[in-house]
């Protein structure tokens, strides 16, 4: 392995964020570490909220790569994480699937907005994404995931995505979606994507949802919201393209934050 983390099995990269209440009405970032293809950039804070941008320093993830992003929001802190551009899963010279793991930990009275840009599954790629979120009982979360199957005019690669959310140690969401060549049959059928090429979800966790759960309902064409078993709600959406998907999820987010 060389200094960039490259070996015969692909690139290994870990990025870490720790957000902490600074005691002055703001949020400090005592840990902001990254290497290889995933770079972290501090941006201008908004009130008490610290803001960080994920920047892709290299192409990828490619076949055989393994990227990990970890974020911990300590008690009373507020953090928003976005990305500068879409992430594109590409085929690589190394054999085997690529992996992208996200690990998020939010303490009591803390808040995290996890809002990356779309993940695009390019033809010939094979990517497995896992996102695991651990929330304390009074933590707050807004998490958005968007996946686009193939670039313009091409077939998608293989994409498997698993999202797990736990609140106070209890699982409120654990789901997996596999799409593309080799995925279980029916992924493109009427019960799943129905021919659409953009799919996304929005998870909102707020302590007040425990007493007043969000009612299940449709949110325009292609989107719906359901309450989860805990202080949380899940929006799922499908759309013909990334632009329409983002519009659906933005409208859903505005609706839930007003609830």
TrEMBL record:
It is found in: Cytoplasm. Keywords: Chaperone, Cytoplasm, Nickel insertion. GO terms for molecular function: nickel cation binding. GO terms for cellular component: cytoplasm. InterPro entries: UreD. The keyword Cytoplasm applies. Its main location: cytoplasm. The keyword Chaperone applies. Pfam families: UreD (PF01774). Belongs to the UreD family. Required for maturation of urease via the functional incorporation of the urease nickel metallocenter. UreD, UreF and UreG form a complex that acts as a GTP-hydrolysis-dependent molecular chaperone, activating the urease apoprotein by helping to assemble the nickel containing metallocenter of UreC. The UreE protein probably delivers the nickel. This is Urease accessory protein UreD. The gene is ureD.
